[in-house]
Amino acid sequence: MKKNAKTKISLVSILVILGVAGRMMRVIHRHQIREQNRQTTKKVAEFQKTLDEEETKKRNETFNKVFNESLVQKNFENWQKVDEFHGLGQRTGQFYIYNFEKKEEILLENTDQAFVLPIRDKSDNVTFQAIFAHKDGQWHIMKPDGSSQLQLGEANISAESKFVIENNVLDYDQ
């Protein structure tokens, strides 16, 4: 009988040890899952924070561009936006190209008319804006730095003119 009692005690002890070990394994496993969840939550929060910061930065940049453009516009009697970085303004009869990146005005000397007009490139199917200036009696397409990119001569250009580039030739758009 002593042997049976020892066997029963041994079996009970083994079952208790197995039960405790199983319980410990479940506790450790749950702890590992919680830690993984915490790490995942932390990574998601950091990623969301980065996205929020980038979105806020873009929103602030957009606001600053719009705000700066509106401040610049107030300095001119006439204003036309060329692209994201440039505008054309007129003040006291003189025309200026404004560079938003450098925050500088470039005077178009000897210019009595200037317009921002669309040019459609048929080969790329793209439309962009260009500065047309009547300077020294001839029309020019101007570079953003105020120099002439292309001399057009004595063309008939108005604020409603539209142009097209086809086969590398600039012409009026019909």
UniProtKB/TrEMBL annotation:
The lineage of its organism: Bacteria, Bacillati, Bacillota, Bacilli, Lactobacillales. This is Lipoprotein.
